Amino acid sequence: MGLLDKEFSDGNIVVAKVDDLLNWARLSSVWQLGFGLACCAIEMMATSASHYDFDRFGVIPRNTPRQADIIIISGTVTLKMATRIKRLYEQMPDPKYIISMGSCANCGGPYWEHGYHVLKGVDRVIPVDVYVPGCPPRPEALLEGLIKLREKIRKESLRKKSE
Amino acid sequence: MKNPEEIFEILKKEFSDAIVSLDKELPTEQIISVDPLQINKIGEFLRDNEELKFDSLMCLSGVDDANGTKIKEENGSEKIQNGTLSVYYHLHSIELKHKITLRVSIPREDAKVESVENIWKCANWHEREAFDLFGIVFLNHPDLRRILMPYDWEGYPLRKDYENPEFYQGMKVPY
Q1: Half-sphere exposure of A55 toward its Cβ, with a 13 Å CA cutoff?
Q2: pLDDT tens per residue, chain B (175 residues)?
Q3: Global ipTM
Q4: Closest Cα in chain A, distance from residue B13 (Å)
Q5: Do A116 and B173 make contact, defined as CB atoms within 8 angstroms?
Q6: Residue B23, strand partner residues
Q7: C or N: which end of chain A has fewer Cβ atoms within 10 Å?
Q8: Nearest alpha carbon to residue B11 among B96, B115, B39
Q9: Which residue of B has its CA nearest to A125?
């Protein structure tokens, strides 16, 4: 952990770096924007439900981008939707993170050649932190994507967002 | 309950010149071809006639028949000239339990069909879809806007000679 297993020098005092403390707080309550696009959204909802329990990682859906830390792009991004996704992303407060879930959001998926209406990868409009492959990915895969994101947040510094 | 031949005879008696032909030699169902600018009153007759009672429009679909002459353009793309587009109407009578398929064919350069929205309300969105993807204009339609593609989209994606744009609102479209 790096935070709690070190210093309990006196009673109720924890000694830690501000970076570690902030990162720990951020990665322990990543509130996601309640936003689903296609069949991947069904898997995302299954991940939220009791069987896989997203909430044990502090992930709870928020209904407004202004209270969300993370947006999971779960499904096919059409060109019509891409403009809306960009606006939602811009409405989220910093620090904000993006998980691209499934082949469609990663690169266009089965629509890569003949999908005249599909954006070939959501990273063409917004910067993605973690790509989760699969069509659709199982809840376990999405959970691993979230754990990867938590590792990324843990390495952040106040000076610089980690790569 | 009536079979397509009987329905064709009834229509032929009522409308004569507007009913073009009955296509029997198809592997699927038999299809009646009709005049695109008289489909409205034919539809009204089909719905209200006591022997027919087609109270349900199951589906309305646009089709590109891909039957024109292909012309190579300088930039390597292909355009189709003098072909036809078609609209298919699949009708069903819930009361009398019979079915019929109608077809109208129109030139692709001037694709205009009468709307049947005032006869079967469900045709509203079906016609908007056919307009959106094939560019078929439905005359007297109350709200003929695109239904799936963005309003500022150019071209009709399901036409056989459709060319995908390079960019849409600054986003690259091809892979």
Answers
A1: 8
A2: 888 888 988 888 888 888 778 888 888 889 999 999 999 989 999 999 988 899 999 999 999 998 888 888 777 778 888 889 999 999 999 999 999 999 999 998 889 999 999 999 999 999 999 999 999 999 999 999 999 999 999 889 999 888 888 899 889 888 8
A3: 0.77
A4: 46
A5: yes
A6: B31
A7: C
A8: B39
A9: B171
Cβ-proximal residues to B120 (8 Å cutoff; 6+ apart), any chain: B43, B47, B56, B57
User: Is B148 in Cβ contact with A108 (below 8 Å)?
Assistant: no
Instruction: Please compute Rg for chain B using Cα positions.
Output: 18
The amino acid that residue A60 corresponds to is I
d(CA A134, CA A116): 22
d(CA A73, CA A97): 11
Query: Measured between beta carbons, which residues in chain A are less than 8 angstroms from residue B148?
Result: 117
Distance CA A153, CA A88 (A): 21
What sign for the dihedral angle of Cα B93, B94, B98, B103? Answer: positive
HEC letters along B110-157: HCEEECCCCCCCCHHHHHHHHHHHHCCEEECCCCCCCCCCCCCCCCCC
